[in-house]
Structures are given as structure tokens and as C-alpha cells.
Write a structure and sequence with these properties.
92 residues, Arc Repressor Mutant, subunit A, mainly alpha, 3 helices, two-stranded antiparallel sheet, 2 domains
Length: 92
């Protein structure tokens, strides 16, 4: 990284700076596993959708609860909206 970016990269190799802004590089962190949820063969028909089921007063949302866009930002956004709508319905 230092060969490519020279003085613009911090010694931790996770943050780049140019004096006007900075950009984080979480994928270089040892704590970042770079993974996402997925169903194994046969699970779409057996358990898909259960991740989003409300458990008592706990609502689940995120890309991992989406049956249409699992693993993608679209799934996370849609499921966040779904969970918010479910909470609002419960409050009214």
C-alpha cells in the first residue's frame, strides 16, 4: 500500500489521508470477516423467511431477513422498512 499511496496512507494501513479528507478501509482490519448470510441448498423452501419473524417484542431486519434480495443492500433497506411498518402497526 505504501508503494502505491506513499505518504497518504497511515502506518496502520487502514486509513488514507490527503489533508482534505480521509477514507476508511475496514476490509483491512483483522476484525472484519467480510461475510454475509446465505441459505444452503434446500433451506430456501424450509426456513427462508423465518429470520424475519418477530420474537416477542424483538423485530429483526437486514439483508439476511430478505427472501427476495438476501445479501444485498436492497434487501436490507426493504426489510428495514418492513420492520418499521410492523412496529408502527403494533403501536396503533
Amino acid at each position: 500500500m505504501t508503494e502505491l499511496f506513499g505518504e497518504f496512507i497511515d502506518s496502520d494501513h487502514k486509513t488514507m489521508r490527503n489533508g482534505r479528507g480521509s477514507g476508511a478501509k475496514p476490509m483491512l482490519s483483522r476484525f472484519f470477516g467480510s461475510s454475509y448470510a446465505y441459505w444452503r441448498v434446500g433451506q430456501y423452501g424450509s426456513i427462508a423467511g423465518y429470520e424475519a419473524v418477530t420474537q416477542g417484542g424483538v423485530y429483526f431486519a437486514g439483508e439476511h431477513t430478505s427472501t427476495d434480495f438476501q445479501g444485498y443492500m436492497e434487501g436490507g433497506a426493504a426489510e428495514g422498512e418492513r420492520a418499521a411498518d410492523d412496529i408502527l402497526k403494533r403501536l396503533h
